[in-house]
Description:
The protein is an alpha+beta fold. The chain has helices spanning 25-51, 55-72, 78-105, 117-127, 199-204, 290-297, 299-333, 342-349, 351-354, 357-367, 374-379, 389-418, 421-429, 434-462, 465-469, 490-499, 506-530, and strands at 130-131, 137-147, 151-159, 165-168, 173-176, 181-184, 187-191, 195-196, 216-220, 223-228, 231-236, 239-242, 247-250, 256-261, 268-271. Strands 1, 2, 3, 4, 5, 8, 9, 10 and 11 form a 9-stranded antiparallel β-sheet that branches. It has a 4-stranded antiparallel β-sheet with strand order 12-13-14-15, with no helix packed on it.
Amino acid sequence: MTVTDQPPTSADRPPVRRRRPPATTGTLMTKGIGIVLLASMLIAVLPSVVATRQWGFLGVLVGLAAVVVAVYATRRAIPAKYLLPGVAMLVLFLIYPIMLTFQLSTTNFGDGTRSDKEQAVARIIGTSAVQVPGGAVYSLAVGTQGTVTGGPFAFFLVDTQTGEAFRGTETELAPLTASEVTITGGLITEASGWTMLTRQQINAVSGSGQPLDGYTVTVSDNEVIRVQGFQAITMHTPLVYDAATDEITNTDTGVVYAPQRSASGDRSFFVDADGNRLSNQSWGENIGLFNYQRIFTDARITGPFLSIFLWTLLFATASVGLTFALGLGLAVVLNDPRLRFQRFYRSALLLPYAIPGFISLMVWSGFWNQRFGLVNDLLGLDINWLGQTWPARIAVILTNLWMGFPYMFLVCTGALQSIPTDLKEAAAIDGASGFTQFRKITFPLLLVSVAPLLVASFAFNFNNFNAIQLLTQGGPFSSDNPTAGGTDILISYTYRLAFGTGGQQIGFASAISVVLFILTGVIAALQFRATRFLEDVN
């Protein structure tokens, strides 16, 4: 046979394209149902997102929805089908909140600055208004396109003389047709696209500092509608706002007021040429990196911040170190196979871990009570544990030790059981004592498995809000600084600044949160770098 007569080899044959089997009806139905559910969820959240003008969040949702449809509607991009869920969760629950927090930290958002400048101007003009003799009187209903507590809100008005219906916001008064609303007994009870509030709900959002506090409807340059009981009346104001010059003029006196940043630097007010304020009403605005500058330059902040930071480091270090030491010691003792009732002891030690944390903290807050607490009764002491700074700190650390050692016990038990017994047997033959075996073999090998968990535990305790808030509420507090308590860690201090009774400073608290995030990341990176030597442990 000649060479040309030889049969063709596999290398000479053209590649065979394997056709994918057609998609089954069940697969198509599953994809269709998934796309419909995704579209339904997007449509469900769309009104509230648009009403609150969260355009960034809307863009993220639409982008993720488009990517999900593009990936799962096709039979290609197989790796993306598995990676997309994790990436989507990463974007929604980590990256986007971080970006949103940083954006909020560059604003002065908080009590007194929740409204924008347009709404603030409307309220300033509205508060100066006086009733117009013979002016229109309206029956009042309130509607929202968001939540019944946060809005955005609008007034739904019916002229008691003419029966005409209107929808009023802080920027305009718009007439309504009979097809848009339902009027019962002279009051609008339903409106297309709006949720109407009950009387009780209106009262709840009309108090001091609430969204409807000082709410006015702009009719013209010097005419507004304000609430009077459960009615609304037409009022006249001498103040006129000029958007071109960004000034408010009092037409009765001729005084001109222009916006000016206050001495504190975090908000602006309308003031005249002599610096006299027209109103204490301010508004939300971008203030750049002022909040970060305030953290490191304001003496009222830097003092508590540095001391709280040092206590936070001590609290996290002591919590991790003590829980690890106790958990490891118990794990080593109960790892001896000669010990009787081993399973019983291990189960009993897990009880603190099985009880919900908030219950344990509430119970321990009673144990530390000076007058009838269990600790003082058992030890015959009379220590005001939660009323003095260092006793309170000791109480917090010991309580956290009680709650945290079962976790370390579990981790260390698993790590000990994974260490080959051959190594310890060989060391024993070479004459190594039990302590030497533990120090030279067991502990280094155990750290290889446990070190990442110790770093994670440190990060958790660095931000362990529950342990502080439920046990001491950050106290004890001194009379000269009621904001920063003796047991406050950075996260509880941030919470008090953001939601404390002394006035919410959410923009400033967001800046502290960003700093706290960076600190936690840097400390974790340094800890991981410090554990690199464990890579050499064989």
